[in-house]
Specification:
single chain; alpha/beta; Nucleotidyltransferase, domain 5; DHBP synthase; 3 domains; eight-stranded mixed beta sheet
């Protein structure tokens, strides 16, 4: 049985292919279209997935990650309830109705001509299936929290063997995801893409507004259920997530996008983060209690909040194990829809193969890969000078030497990652011990805010020497504090403030550790641990780097610049390499050094690659 899952028409559209033996492929449309967070129908991603089928094979079912009729009903109900104040968002609502009512059926029938073979899986069930079915657990509590699906905003499920049973849900407009998005907008970041910036900013501040939020914005109960005070939120009737009352409550207007975060924005971010963590702790505790299992699975956009996830690991008294879907956003909904359809259609014949320790996600390396011939053709087309080392060992040694000599390397190899985090195959790598690596990669390569933290990729067997628990994080979804032996005790965040340091950039620079490029202002790192059996070549490069330097970690950030998706094709990687200050491109079996390229190639190649296939 082959099932193609699709998510589309909100944000982060994707396609995923599931077969009888498990997950075959998955990819986000943005990697093909080069439009960050692309919401359009994932034609290219679906085409990639279908090409993974053997000759003569076809899909048995096509599964969509939402129930469009339920979503249409909610849009119409919302328009009626908020009229006439909601007139500002009616044009957007009409576009959504047209997409769901007309475009969606047409596009689905292009992929599957038989309407009897098309299935619709509710949004939250798709998320829950993406979390439970690939997990290593035979039974688990499943918690889904996001902005909104059709109507659901939070749901709790019981996963048992081959089935998922709903236990509890909360509905729009009461949403933790939309609460967090409101603070994202207030702090000057873009809704639906800047929430991770709010999470990164939170450690710079103090949660001095936490109680104000709990007293005015959200009525939080002991079991984690809640209601928002809609007086402060605008998303029901305007394009803004907040109202003037929201700004008045916190005593300042929203921060502009181009402003450096000030102390007020830092404290707001810290306070919003504290409230979200409190909510998730209570909801997770309830989920485990209701499901009767100490295993917990997470999905939905809030499952990408590493700080919240880490508090669950450290503080939930009834938690035995946790597993978080690495593509927890809407892209993962495509995978969940396919997995749920496989379970539903197979019925009693469905046998779920549960891994012993690890999950069934294949390291989330589920996207396209490219042959040496394809990569070489792209390099030659743009007149680049490149080398092909005689062996994999020589290749890794060459890259490790470059990293040890403080060069920044773009690494492109193997299957592309599915989800928002680069896990080694589409990564920018650097030595984390450099004092200026953080600012260099932020400003000269990523072209983003200089205070933003980077994550380390670290050898799994070495991590416990450097970091406190939790220390198993293969998908970069948990935080760990660096051990005191590797950080300076002379400067703390509080001392830096007392000394008059105010800006986020200066505060980040004031905090010292042996690995400054991957140590955040509060001493934490968003770990990616990588085991000896990992398929990514990044592991082999890190092994050699460790032997040469004694350092078991590298700075690992996604291979892209600000505002663009992670690179998809070789031409995207080459363009990013040439248009930034990266020193080396390690692409497939080839090494490309910036210093060896002609001025003509540097000036022409970027322009050509951005527009050529």
């Amino acid at each position: 049985m082959n099932i193609l899952g699709v998510s589309a028409f909100y944000h982060d559209s994707a396609a995923a292919l599931v077969g009888s033996a498990g997950i075959i492929a998955a990819a986000q449309e943005e990697r093909f279209s080069r439009v960050k967070g692309d919401w359009r129908f994932p034609s290219d991603a679906a085409d990639f997935c279908l090409k993974q089928l053997s000759i003569g094979e076809n899909i048995d079912f096509l599964s969509f990650y939402e129930n469009p009729s339920t979503k249409i009903s909610r849009i119409l109900e919302q328009a009626a309830v908020t009229a006439p104040t909601g007139i500002d968002i009616w044009p957007a609502s009409i576009r959504s109705l047209a997409l769901l009512g007309y475009s969606l059926p047409e596009r689905l029938l292009e992929l599957c001509e038989d309407p009897d073979r098309i299935r619709f899986v509710s949004h939250h069930r798709s998320h829950a299936a993406s979390a439970f079915y690939p997990s290593p657990f035979n039974n688990a509590a499943v918690l889904v929290a996001d902005g909104v699906g059709e109507k659901s905003t939070v749901s709790i499920w019981s996963g048992q063997g081959n089935s998922l049973t709903p236990i509890h849900e909360m509905q729009f407009p009461h949403s933790l995801g939309l609460l967090y998005s409101a603070f994202t907008q207030y702090c000057g970041f873009k809704v639906n893409s800047g929430e991770y910036k709010l999470m990164g900013l939170a450690p710079f501040g103090s949660p001095i507004y936490e109680q104000k939020i709990l007293d005015n914005l959200i009525d939080l109960r002991s079991d984690g259920s809640f209601r928002l005070n809609m007086r402060y939120f605008g998303f029901q009737h305007s394009e803004s997530t907040i109202t003037a009352d929201f700004e008045e409550l916190f005593g300042a207007p929203s921060r502009k996008h181009d402003q450096e975060p000030d102390r007020h924005a830092m404290d707001i971010a810290a306070s919003a983060q504290a409230v979200i963590e409190r909510c998730m702790l209570r909801l997770a505790h309830t989920a485990i209690k209701l499901a009767g299992s100490g295993n917990l699975c997470l999905a939905g956009g809030l499952a990408l909040n590493c700080t919240s996830n880490t508090r669950l690991v450290r503080e939930l008294p009834n938690l035995d194990n946790i597993w978080i879907q690495p593509a927890s956003g809407d892209s993962g909904g495509a995978l969940g829809a396919a997995l749920q359809t496989r379970a539903s259609e197979a019925g009693a014949g469905f046998v779920r193969k549960t891994p012993n320790k690890k999950d069934a996600m294949k390291e989330s390396l589920l996207g396209p890969s490219f042959s040496a011939e394809e990569i070489e053709a792209s390099l030659e087309k743009n007149s680049l000078k490149f080398h092909r080392p005689i062996s994999s060992a020589v290749f890794c040694d060459t890259v490790a030497d470059a990293l040890a000599s403080e060069q920044v390397v773009g690494h492109f190899d193997g299957h592309e990652e599915f989800g928002p985090r680069a896990l080694g195959n589409r990564s920018i790598l650097a030595d984390p011990r450099q004092d200026d690596a953080l600012s260099c990669v932020n400003l000269k390569i990523k072209f983003r805010e200089s205070w933003r933290p980077f994550a380390p990729i670290i050898l799994e067997e070495e991590v416990s020497k450097y970091y406190e628990n939790p220390t198993y994080s293969p998908y970069m979804l948990l935080l760990s504090n660096i051990k005191p032996a590797f950080k300076s005790n002379t400067t703390t965040l509080q001392k830096a403030r007392e000394q008059g340091v105010k800006s986020a950039t200066a505060l980040q620079s004031a905090i010292k550790s042996e690995f400054p490029a991957v140590t955040h202002v509060n001493g934490s790192s968003r770990l990616q641990t990588i085991g000896a059996d990992a398929s990514s070549r990044a592991r082999k490069i890190l092994d050699v780097f460790f032997l040469k330097t004694g350092c078991p970690m590298l700075l690992n950030t996604s291979f892209n610049v600000r505002g663009e998706p992670i690179v998809g094709k070789p031409k995207d990687a080459i363009a990013c390499f040439l248009n930034t200050d990266m020193d080396m491109l390690a692409i497939g079996p080839f090494i490309v050094r910036k210093c060896e390229q002609s001025e003509l190639a540097r000036n022409l190649v970027g322009k050509q690659i951005f527009n050529a296939d």
